[in-house]
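Human: Here is a favour to ask of a fellow structure person. Comparing notes only helps if you start from a blank page. I am asking you to supply a protein in sequence and C-alpha cell form. Write it directly below this note and I will take it from there.

Assistant:
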Amino acid sequence: MRGLVSVRLLALISVVSVLSLIPPGAAVAQGSAEGQSDVMIRTSLTAESARPAAGEQTTLAVVMQPQDGWHGYWKQPGSVGLAPQFDWQLPDGVTVGEPAYPVPETLLIDDLMNHVYEHPYAILVPLNVPDHLGEGTTIPIRVDLQYLACREDACIPERATLSTQLSVGDGAASPRHQSDFDHWRQALPRPLGARATYEHTGDRIRIAIPLPASVKLEQPHLFVANDEAVDPAARQNFSRQGDELIVETAAGETLPQPLEAVVTLAGGTGLAFQADAGSLPAPVANGHATNDSAEEKRTSGTVGVMLTALFGAIAGGILLNVMPCVFPILSLKVLSLARLSGGPREARREALAYTAGVVGVCILLGAGILALRAAGAQVGWAFQLQEPRVIVGLTLLMTAIAFNLAGLFELGGFNGGAQLAEKGGATGAFWTGVLAAFVATPCSGPFMATALGAAIWLPPLAALTIFAGLGLGIALPFLVLGYFPALSRKLPRPGPWMQSVRHALAIPMFVTALALLWVLGQQLSSDGVVATLAVVMLLAAGLWLTGLRQRSGKRGSWGPSVCTAVVALSAGWFIPAAFPQSSDSPLLGAADESRQSLSFDETRLDELREQNTPLFVYFTADWCVTCQVNEKSAIDRQTTRAAFQQAGVTTMVGDWTNGDPAITAFLNRHDRTGVPLYLWYAPGAEKPTMLPQWLTPTLLTDLVTG
C-alpha cells in the first residue's frame, strides 16, 4: 500500500510541476469551447439562468468534452491522476458552493485504478447571489481551470480560463440550456438519504450501506471521495445482510470522519452517501444471517407486511369500481346479469370468468413491473399508460364500444368470444374483466398506493399475491352479485328499459374516450391528437358501414370494420413517433405558470431544504383521476395559492405522465409504485410528512396556518 501511495505522490508531483510550466494563455476559452481545437479536453462555462435573482441561487456548469481516447478525472482521481482545480474570480458577496460531479467510471491500467470520465460531462457548481444587489446589476464570472487530460499512454496538463457575464433579474432558467441542465443533473449520483456505517480493522475497512435487498446491483463499484481512505485498486467484495449492502476492501492510511462515497447500481446510476465510524455485525456466510431467531423475526415481519398490503390491495380494488375508469364497464356486466336466462349457474360462471380476467391482468402487469425492475428499468404501476401507443389503442377500443352501445352497429355478427360487454357468455365476461383491469390500473385511491408500494419490496411470490388481491377487489362486486342469487333477483327484469340504459351507457364511454384523448394531448403535439382523431373517425366510418349492411341483411357486413380497424391500428402505431410533443410546448408552459411551481428536481429539492424553505412536493399524471380531482379541488385553488404565497411555500411538481426514471426512483424510496404522492417539508424537518391521497383545501392551508 505504501508503495502505491509513493507512486501516486510522485505522479502528482510531476503533474503539478508540469502545470506550473504551462503559460497562462494556454487553452483559454471565454465561456465556450471555441478556439480549443488544440486541447485534449474542450471546456466551456454555462449558467442555468442568465438573470439570477438577488438572494437566490443558480447553477453554473463547467462542461468538459474529452476527445476520443482521452479522459478527465473525478474529484478523487483514484490511484493516479489529478482532480480539476478551480480558481474563481467573483464580485464581492457572490460565492460558489462545492462542485457536484457526475457518477464516474472505472479505468484499470497496469493495476492502477482511475476514476474517470471518457465521455462529455459537466461539473455543476452552485452560485449564490447576495440579496443586496439591485436588478440589472452585472455579475462577471471567471474561473481559472487546471485539469489533467490522459489516455493510456500519455497525460497532458491543460489550463483554461472560462468566463461569462450574468445580470441580476427574475431568476428564470434560460430555455436554451434547460434541457442540458436536466440531462447533467440526471448524471449526478442520487443522495441516499440515510447514513451508512464503516468499521476499520487492521488493513481492512467494511462499510454497511442501507439499501433494500430488492434493489438490483450490476457490477457495483465503490468510489470513495476521501483521499487515502481506501486503496482504489484493491478488490472490493460486496455482500448482502438483509437490507444492508456490505462493502469490504483494503483500507488506506487515514480515518475520515465522515467517509464520503458513491456506490454504483444497475444502469450506471449511483447513490451518494456519508458513513460514520462505528461497529458492524460479524460477516456471515454468503451475505445471509445465520441466526435462527433473527430469521424468524424477518419472516414474521414479511408475513405481517404481506397480509396488511393484501387487505389494502383488496380494499383499494373495491373502491376502484366507483372510479370513472371502471364504473361504465362494471355497469355493462351488471346489465348483462339482468337478462341472463341460464339461472344461478350461468351467473356464477360469468362472475368467475370476469374475475379470472381481472385478476389475470393484474398479475401480468405486476409481473411485468417486477421483471422490468429486475432488469434495471425504473417503472411503476400504470406504466402502460405512459406509452402513447397504448393510449391510441384504448381510445379506438372505447370509441368502438361507445358506438356499439349507441346502436350504430351490433356485435351479433361476431362469435361469442368477441362479445365483450354487449352479450353474456363466460368468454365475453373474461375479456370484459381484462378490459376493466387494464383501464382501472391508472386510478389510485386510498389503501391501494401503500399496498402496491409494499409489494415492490416483497419477494416475488408475495408481491404477485398483492397484485392478485387488487384484481380480486376490482372483481368483487360482480363476483358477489353472481354468487348470491338473492341479490341478483333484486335486479329489474329484462325489458325495453335495458335498451334505454344501454344507450345511456354510451355517454360515459364517449367521455372515457375523450379523457384518453386529453391524456394523449399531454404526450403528443396537437398534430398528433388531430391525427388520432382522424383514425378514430376512420374506424367510426367503418363501423357505420357495418351497421348499414347489418340492417339491410347483407353478407360480409364486418368487412368495412375489419379493414378500417386494421388501417386505424397500423396508423395509430406510427402516430406517437411522427408527432412527439415539443419540449417548448405552449401548453406545458401555461400549466407551469398557472401553478406557479417548479418542476421536480431532486438536486434543487435538496438545495431548498438546506435553505429551510417550506416545500409542498407532489407527483401527478394526466391519466390519474385521483390526481386530477385533488388538483382541481385542493391544490389549484385561490385560497391554497394565497396561503402558500403568504407563507413563502415553494411548490414542486413531478409530472409522471410520460414516465421519468428519476421520479420513479423517488417514488420507490417513499414506498410508492405510482401516483399520487403528496409530501410536506416543514422548515428544518429531517423527514417530510406524507399527506393522504385525498386532499382537501383546509388540509393544505392548515399546513402553513396551523
Observations:
- The domain at 196-287 is CATH 2.60.40 (Immunoglobulin-like).
- The CA atoms of residues 643 and 702 lie 9 Å apart.
